[in-house]
Amino acid sequence: MRTVKSIPFLFIFKPIVSLFILLVFFSHSAIAMETMDTDEITPGMKGYGKTVFSGSQIESFDVEILGVLKNWEARNDMILVKMTGGPLEKTGIIAGMSGSPVYVDNKLIGAVSHGWSFAKDAIAGVTPIRAMLDVLKIDSETRENTYAGNNSTWSTSLSTQDSDVVARLQSHGLIHESVLTKSSNPQQPFTLSLVPIQTPVIISGFDYRSLNSVSPLFNKLGRFSLQGTSGSSNSPTDLYDFQPGSSVAVEIIRGDLSASAIGTVTYRDDKNILAFGHPLIQIGSTDLPMSTAQVHTVLASQSGSVKMASPGEIIGRISQDRRSAIAGRIGEYTKMLPCQTEIRGSLNVKYNFEIVHNKVLTPILFQMAVESALLATEKTIGEKSVNLKLDIGIAGRKESIKIENRYFDSGPSWFPIYNTIQPITTLLNNEFQTTEIESIKLVADISETNNIASIANIRVSKRWVAPGEEVHLSIRLRPNTQDYVSIPVGIKIPDDVVRGTSVRVTVCDAIISRMMEMVSAPGHFSPASFEQLVNNLEDTESNNNIIVKIKLNKRGLTYNGEDFPSLPNSFLTIMSLSNQSGAAPLQSETVKRIPTKWLINGKKTIILFVDNKS
User: Fold this and answer.
1) Bigger pLDDT: 569 or 308?
2) Contact yes or no for 492/591 (Cβ under 8 A)
3) Higher model confidence: residue 78 or residue 418?
């Protein structure tokens, strides 16, 4: 009799369970699905899209293909769709939908990315998934580093398009009959105002007036709508639920002040993410925090509906910002730049926040944060004196860079803040080395006063002088609404001044001194090394100094940033005929600085005559 061995149930069940767990895991972590190219797409096809209209719940909306604009831009097509369902009949295209995936026959065809302003129907341009997938393939060695600027509207020649596409655009009021029939040149392209959907930048902690001032800066980089909200969402994140159609935030500021750009995930392949379907600012390779987002509501508006949302938990980083998409990776994190702004004035307030480390965005975001802090605590119109202390920590440099100066402002623009932005921009874009800023700290002391003093005149103890002689000057200042003040200054006539010549003495403020230096020593403004650049930033002439300059009849030169103030004529002739660059003329002078409690304004000059008697 044949013996039948029994196989334990658990021995069979265990591998089945293991296989099931693996299938479930990979079904969540590898969400990439089959795609459809534009050559397979024809007008009239029906499909659906995915996005979040409220909370974090992904919802579907209906899509009808209107056609494909071939070669809309170089080597890329644009799919035109009409969207219906959900709130879209009421809102039209919604800012924040950028990146919403669109499917036909359950195949991914691309991301909602473009639209028409003031269109009555939710007609959208869809960036083909093929163009978006190319972003994932870009080699890290050859990444570009440019931004889009104002180039956000494209044109296409109607004569090259399918007549059915043209007819459908006409039926929705997006192309007008008069333009088609009256055009004298049928081959002439005319502009379809199809632009990237605005990216909502969700702001928290900022004064609304600072948003108005920085909006033009953001709009030079791309298409943004700045929206206020009440902070971030602290709801826990399940990365299994973070899939195509989910809201995604690109954080650019976080802390006491925060700002995040909101869009939608188009594609996920394991940890790789594609979103937006258009650039943020098209800066190429980048390093920006990526987080989830919670949608509070959709604000319907004829001028442009928008998702009101808050960023959630940081889950990864955005590494590519290109024409067709932004790309990132879950689980990779970026280091942000810690900043502190302390305002000492009518109120003493301190803000701690972090911003992205980026050549383009860092200066703009820091300016935005500082202006907001000032507007929230200090008056905008009227006289105010500002003392700014800027401390910038640089990776690999033992000493931080310290810049301090005083300014006066009577308008609402807070123009002195530019003087803190300019050094940051200079350091990030210097030609000598890649610079990583580790920290930025700004202290602003504000007083509601006008402490300007104008240079009224200068007097000397004698007009005829001898080489090496001490001469006494009396500099007369006129402080605002106060009596005249005389400042005594002693200057020494150089020992080697030529008898029978004259000496020009100039008393001036810091701005005029700098302008004179640009003429007498232009080489000072062309540093030859990073340390020379740092020295130029730190040695900025203080605005509360009286500057006394004695111009000498001696010539020198600046070579690779170093001064050689007194050289023989023969050597100067040789250098002027040299076939090597790097030398610049230098007009010799002696300089004396007298600190005051006022901001100095103006310029006066007097000529002294050198006695020709020995």
Assistant:
1) 308
2) no
3) 78
